[in-house]
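Entry for the shared binder. Reason: the reviewer on the internal report wants the predicted structure included alongside the sequence.
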Amino acid sequence: MTDTDRIGLSASRTWLAYLWILLGGTVVSFLAIAALIVVVDPWKALPLSASIDRPMSNNNQRLLYPMLVRTKNLDSFVFGSSTAMLIDPQHLSAGLGGRFANLALAGGLPWEQLEYLRLVLAHHPKPAALLFAMDHWWCAPTLVYERKNPEHHKFPHWIYRNLSWRNLRYLLNEDALLDAVNTLRHRIGRFTPSIRDDGYWVFLSYFYSYDPEAALQRLYGSRPRSPAAPIVPPEKVADSERQAWSFPWLDLLEKALDAVPPATRTMFVTMPVHVTAQTRPGSAAAQREDVCKQRTARIAAKHGSVLIDLRFPSAITQPDDNYWDSLHYRLEVARQIEELIVSGINSAQPDAAGTRRIIDAR
């Protein structure tokens, strides 16, 4: 063997050694990352993991709230969409008792809220209280399963099923690694989550500050900056059309609530969107919504409750500066709404200012 051959062979062996080191380092790094994710289990999706307090390590509610239901010391729950996300569960707990969590979802549709109800009853078979913050989707004439807003995270069905080692395939990714690291950072005081441990998230001011002119633009666009006048006299609706009105989501909700124990305090409230997002008074759509509210009140009555109605023109829903946009009220308005809910549930009476109605079908 010539010197050239020996040099070539030595170089080949050196590169082969480098490749083995690189491969070994990659394998060891992967195993270390996998071990960190499995031990921390930031989304509480595995049957066995470290007994640690897990923070809301990102803003993906659909991914993290199942962990909240499974691991936090709670017994009462709010279900809804983003129109209920500013309701502070601590204020509900102070006024109604229990230990509330707010499970309202950005863009949350009825089927997702029903998934949460099933999850809650699986882990809390005897909840102290359930509060349903109703929006227009519950009155939809058909079963709608798709969100209009593509920016919302897809629903991770896998994490709502029983804890399983098969869920590991969904955990070996960059998001889970980052959340595992944030969980450890939280333990040493180096990470502050934007979502509280009871699901409360001041989400609008998290993204931007309030601008009155921008809010008006979102409320009215190019339209005149005043709500549409009521239709007088109201539009005529044929009896056959009225009798054909159906509310399939409410039917499914009523069936799902059969699993709720009689001792659970089950409550319902319609959320107060701005008047520009409400049906025009006197229109056929408004009359259909009124029938939907009556239907909801009958479901409430089966559970010894009433429907607290905040979705109508009032001193809450008419002022433009109460809202960020047509659906989302400001933080100080949320405090008023909490008081209207608590006092309405405790008294089952309208308020003196005319901002709360009670629909009692008992």
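Summary line for the report: The CA atoms of residues 216 and 224 lie 11 Å apart.
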